[in-house]
Amino acid sequence: MRFEKHIFVCENKREEENPRGCCHDKGGADLRQLFKAKLKSKNLNIKFRANAAGCLDACEYGVTVVVYPEQIWYGGVTENDVDEIIENHLIKNIPVERLIIKDNLPTAGRKVYKK
Amino acid sequence: MRFEKHIFVCENKREEENPRGCCHDKGGADLRQLFKAKLKSKNLNIKFRANAAGCLDACEYGVTVVVYPEQIWYGGVTENDVDEIIENHLIKNIPVERLIIKDNLPTAGRKVYKK
Q: Is the CB of A71 less than 8 angstroms away from the CB of B109?
Protein backbone atom coordinates (compact mmCIF):
# COMPACT_ATOMS: atom_id res chain seq x y z
CA MET A 1 0.00 0.00 0.00
CA ARG A 2 1.14 3.55 -0.57
CA PHE A 3 -0.15 4.91 2.75
CA GLU A 4 -1.00 3.08 5.95
CA LYS A 5 -3.77 5.55 6.54
CA HIS A 6 -5.13 8.14 4.16
CA ILE A 7 -7.00 11.04 5.71
CA PHE A 8 -9.32 13.00 3.44
CA VAL A 9 -10.45 16.40 4.69
CA CYS A 10 -13.34 18.07 2.90
CA GLU A 11 -12.42 21.53 1.63
CA ASN A 12 -15.45 22.00 -0.60
CA LYS A 13 -16.49 25.61 -1.10
CA ARG A 14 -20.07 26.61 -1.92
CA GLU A 15 -21.61 30.02 -2.48
CA GLU A 16 -22.47 31.75 0.79
CA GLU A 17 -26.22 31.62 0.20
CA ASN A 18 -26.26 27.83 -0.31
CA PRO A 19 -28.33 26.30 2.52
CA ARG A 20 -26.16 23.17 2.65
CA GLY A 21 -23.20 25.22 3.80
CA CYS A 22 -19.73 23.87 3.13
CA CYS A 23 -16.72 22.50 4.91
CA HIS A 24 -14.49 25.21 3.48
CA ASP A 25 -16.34 27.90 5.41
CA LYS A 26 -16.15 25.79 8.57
CA GLY A 27 -12.35 25.69 8.30
CA GLY A 28 -11.70 22.61 6.13
CA ALA A 29 -8.61 23.97 4.41
CA ASP A 30 -6.97 25.15 7.63
CA LEU A 31 -7.79 21.82 9.25
CA ARG A 32 -6.09 19.89 6.47
CA GLN A 33 -3.03 22.13 6.66
CA LEU A 34 -2.83 21.51 10.39
CA PHE A 35 -3.04 17.72 9.91
CA LYS A 36 -0.35 17.96 7.25
CA ALA A 37 1.97 20.12 9.36
CA LYS A 38 1.59 17.97 12.47
CA LEU A 39 2.17 14.72 10.58
CA LYS A 40 5.27 16.19 8.99
CA SER A 41 6.62 17.48 12.32
CA LYS A 42 6.31 13.95 13.73
CA ASN A 43 7.84 12.35 10.60
CA LEU A 44 4.58 10.51 10.07
CA ASN A 45 3.84 12.00 6.65
CA ILE A 46 5.18 8.97 4.79
CA LYS A 47 2.85 6.52 6.55
CA PHE A 48 -0.13 8.81 6.91
CA ARG A 49 -1.29 11.34 4.34
CA ALA A 50 -3.67 14.22 4.97
CA ASN A 51 -5.32 14.94 1.65
CA ALA A 52 -7.63 17.66 0.42
CA ALA A 53 -10.96 16.37 -0.84
CA GLY A 54 -13.90 17.85 -2.65
CA CYS A 55 -17.41 17.44 -1.24
CA LEU A 56 -17.61 14.19 0.75
CA ASP A 57 -21.41 14.42 0.79
CA ALA A 58 -21.74 14.71 4.53
CA CYS A 59 -22.20 18.47 4.44
CA GLU A 60 -24.38 18.79 7.53
CA TYR A 61 -21.63 17.22 9.64
CA GLY A 62 -18.77 19.40 8.40
CA VAL A 63 -15.92 19.72 8.68
CA THR A 64 -16.02 16.12 7.49
CA VAL A 65 -12.97 13.86 7.57
CA VAL A 66 -12.78 10.24 6.42
CA VAL A 67 -9.89 7.92 7.22
CA TYR A 68 -9.19 5.03 4.86
CA PRO A 69 -8.73 2.10 4.51
CA GLU A 70 -10.79 1.64 7.69
CA GLN A 71 -13.48 4.04 6.43
CA ILE A 72 -14.01 5.87 9.70
CA TRP A 73 -16.02 9.06 9.16
CA TYR A 74 -15.64 12.02 11.48
CA GLY A 75 -17.91 15.04 11.65
CA GLY A 76 -17.61 18.50 13.16
CA VAL A 77 -13.85 18.16 13.29
CA THR A 78 -11.97 21.22 14.52
CA GLU A 79 -8.32 22.09 14.97
CA ASN A 80 -8.68 21.07 18.62
CA ASP A 81 -9.33 17.46 17.54
CA VAL A 82 -6.27 16.98 15.37
CA ASP A 83 -3.87 15.80 18.09
CA GLU A 84 -6.39 13.27 19.40
CA ILE A 85 -7.06 11.85 15.92
CA ILE A 86 -3.34 11.55 15.22
CA GLU A 87 -2.35 10.10 18.59
CA ASN A 88 -5.28 7.77 19.15
CA HIS A 89 -6.58 6.82 15.75
CA LEU A 90 -3.62 7.07 13.39
CA ILE A 91 -0.89 5.91 15.78
CA LYS A 92 -2.75 3.64 18.23
CA ASN A 93 -5.56 2.49 15.93
CA ILE A 94 -8.22 3.61 18.40
CA PRO A 95 -10.76 5.75 16.53
CA VAL A 96 -12.03 8.87 18.30
CA GLU A 97 -15.53 7.65 19.12
CA ARG A 98 -17.04 11.03 20.05
CA LEU A 99 -16.41 12.42 16.55
CA ILE A 100 -17.67 9.47 14.52
CA ILE A 101 -20.66 10.17 12.27
CA LYS A 102 -23.27 7.60 13.30
CA ASP A 103 -25.49 8.09 10.28
CA ASN A 104 -24.35 5.80 7.48
CA LEU A 105 -26.43 7.20 4.66
CA PRO A 106 -24.88 9.86 2.43
CA THR A 107 -26.86 13.00 1.74
CA ALA A 108 -27.62 11.94 -1.83
CA GLY A 109 -28.88 8.65 -0.45
CA ARG A 110 -31.31 10.30 1.89
CA LYS A 111 -32.71 12.41 -0.93
CA VAL A 112 -33.38 9.27 -2.93
CA TYR A 113 -35.01 7.49 -0.03
CA LYS A 114 -37.22 10.50 0.75
CA LYS A 115 -38.75 10.47 -2.72
CA MET B 1 -20.42 2.50 5.75
CA ARG B 2 -21.40 5.57 3.78
CA PHE B 3 -20.10 4.35 0.40
CA GLU B 4 -19.34 0.83 -0.76
CA LYS B 5 -16.51 2.20 -2.81
CA HIS B 6 -15.04 5.67 -2.73
CA ILE B 7 -13.10 6.77 -5.80
CA PHE B 8 -10.71 9.66 -5.39
CA VAL B 9 -9.49 11.33 -8.56
CA CYS B 10 -6.54 13.69 -8.32
CA GLU B 11 -7.34 17.15 -9.66
CA ASN B 12 -4.29 18.89 -8.29
CA LYS B 13 -3.14 21.89 -10.30
CA ARG B 14 0.47 23.08 -10.33
CA GLU B 15 2.11 25.95 -12.15
CA GLU B 16 2.98 25.06 -15.73
CA GLU B 17 6.73 25.26 -15.16
CA ASN B 18 6.66 22.76 -12.27
CA PRO B 19 8.67 19.68 -13.35
CA ARG B 20 6.43 17.31 -11.39
CA GLY B 21 3.51 18.16 -13.65
CA CYS B 22 0.01 17.70 -12.28
CA CYS B 23 -3.06 15.55 -12.73
CA HIS B 24 -5.18 18.61 -13.48
CA ASP B 25 -3.30 19.29 -16.68
CA LYS B 26 -3.57 15.62 -17.65
CA GLY B 27 -7.37 15.82 -17.41
CA GLY B 28 -8.09 14.98 -13.77
CA ALA B 29 -11.12 17.24 -13.40
CA ASP B 30 -12.77 16.02 -16.60
CA LEU B 31 -12.06 12.45 -15.60
CA ARG B 32 -13.78 12.88 -12.27
CA GLN B 33 -16.78 14.52 -13.92
CA LEU B 34 -17.03 11.58 -16.30
CA PHE B 35 -16.93 9.07 -13.43
CA LYS B 36 -19.59 11.09 -11.63
CA ALA B 37 -21.87 11.37 -14.66
CA LYS B 38 -21.57 7.68 -15.56
CA LEU B 39 -22.23 6.53 -11.99
CA LYS B 40 -25.27 8.77 -11.80
CA SER B 41 -26.61 7.57 -15.16
CA LYS B 42 -26.42 3.99 -13.86
CA ASN B 43 -27.96 4.91 -10.49
CA LEU B 44 -24.75 3.80 -8.83
CA ASN B 45 -23.93 7.15 -7.26
CA ILE B 46 -25.35 6.17 -3.88
CA LYS B 47 -23.11 3.10 -3.54
CA PHE B 48 -20.06 4.50 -5.30
CA ARG B 49 -18.79 8.06 -5.03
CA ALA B 50 -16.34 9.72 -7.40
CA ASN B 51 -14.62 12.41 -5.38
CA ALA B 52 -12.22 15.20 -6.24
CA ALA B 53 -8.92 14.97 -4.42
CA GLY B 54 -5.91 17.20 -4.00
CA CYS B 55 -2.44 15.84 -4.75
CA LEU B 56 -2.35 12.10 -4.08
CA ASP B 57 1.45 12.15 -4.23
CA ALA B 58 1.74 9.86 -7.21
CA CYS B 59 2.30 12.71 -9.64
CA GLU B 60 4.46 10.83 -12.13
CA TYR B 61 1.65 8.33 -12.70
CA GLY B 62 -1.12 10.87 -13.24
CA VAL B 63 -3.97 11.00 -13.69
CA THR B 64 -3.97 9.09 -10.43
CA VAL B 65 -7.08 7.46 -9.01
CA VAL B 66 -7.37 5.52 -5.74
CA VAL B 67 -10.33 3.35 -4.83
CA TYR B 68 -11.08 2.77 -1.15
CA PRO B 69 -11.62 0.82 1.05
CA GLU B 70 -9.61 -1.69 -0.99
CA GLN B 71 -6.84 0.86 -1.62
CA ILE B 72 -6.30 0.04 -5.27
CA TRP B 73 -4.18 2.73 -6.97
CA TYR B 74 -4.52 3.41 -10.68
CA GLY B 75 -2.17 5.50 -12.79
CA GLY B 76 -2.37 7.05 -16.22
CA VAL B 77 -6.14 6.84 -16.13
CA THR B 78 -7.94 8.37 -19.10
CA GLU B 79 -11.57 8.82 -20.04
CA ASN B 80 -11.28 5.62 -22.10
CA ASP B 81 -10.72 3.62 -18.89
CA VAL B 82 -13.78 4.79 -16.97
CA ASP B 83 -16.24 2.18 -18.25
CA GLU B 84 -13.82 -0.65 -17.52
CA ILE B 85 -13.14 0.58 -13.97
CA ILE B 86 -16.86 0.93 -13.29
CA GLU B 87 -17.94 -2.36 -14.83
CA ASN B 88 -15.07 -4.57 -13.70
CA HIS B 89 -13.76 -3.05 -10.50
CA LEU B 90 -16.69 -1.23 -8.94
CA ILE B 91 -19.47 -3.59 -9.97
CA LYS B 92 -17.71 -6.97 -10.28
CA ASN B 93 -14.91 -6.38 -7.77
CA ILE B 94 -12.25 -7.27 -10.34
CA PRO B 95 -9.62 -4.49 -10.34
CA VAL B 96 -8.27 -3.37 -13.72
CA GLU B 97 -4.84 -4.92 -13.48
CA ARG B 98 -3.23 -3.08 -16.40
CA LEU B 99 -3.79 0.31 -14.72
CA ILE B 100 -2.59 -0.57 -11.23
CA ILE B 101 0.44 1.36 -9.98
CA LYS B 102 2.95 -1.33 -9.02
CA ASP B 103 5.23 0.98 -7.05
CA ASN B 104 4.04 1.17 -3.45
CA LEU B 105 6.18 4.03 -2.27
CA PRO B 106 4.76 7.53 -2.38
CA THR B 107 6.85 10.28 -3.94
CA ALA B 108 7.60 11.83 -0.56
CA GLY B 109 8.73 8.40 0.60
CA ARG B 110 11.20 8.02 -2.20
CA LYS B 111 12.71 11.41 -1.41
CA VAL B 112 13.27 10.34 2.18
CA TYR B 113 14.82 7.02 1.20
CA LYS B 114 17.12 8.70 -1.28
CA LYS B 115 18.70 10.90 1.38
A: no
Smallest CA–CA distance from B105 into chain A, residue:
A2
Nearest to A23 by CA among B32, B52, B1: B52
Whether the pTM exceeds 0.90: the reply is yes
ipTM of this model? 0.91
Question: What is the three-class DSSP state of A63?
Answer: coil
Q: Is A66 on the interface with B (CB under 8 A)?
A: yes
pLDDT at residue B29 in the model? 95
- Do residues A73 and A100 touch, judged by C-beta distance below 8 A? yes
Residue B43 exposed, middle or buried by CB count within 10 Å (0-12, 13-18, 19+): exposed
How many angstroms separate the CA of residue B80 from the nearest CA in chain A? Answer: 23
Task: Supply the mean pLDDT for chain A.
Answer: 91
How many CA within 13 A on the CB side of residue A51? 30
Res A11: pLDDT: 95
Q: Are strands B72-74 and B65-68 parallel, antiparallel or unpaired?
A: antiparallel
Q: How far is A66 from chain B (nearest CA, A)?
A: 10
B54 touching A, CB under 8 A? yes
* A8 interfaces chain B, CB cutoff of 8 Å: yes
- Chunk chain B into consecutive blocks of 10 residues (it has 115) and report each block's average pLDDT, rounded to whole numbers: 94 90 93 97 95 93 96 96 98 97 73 42
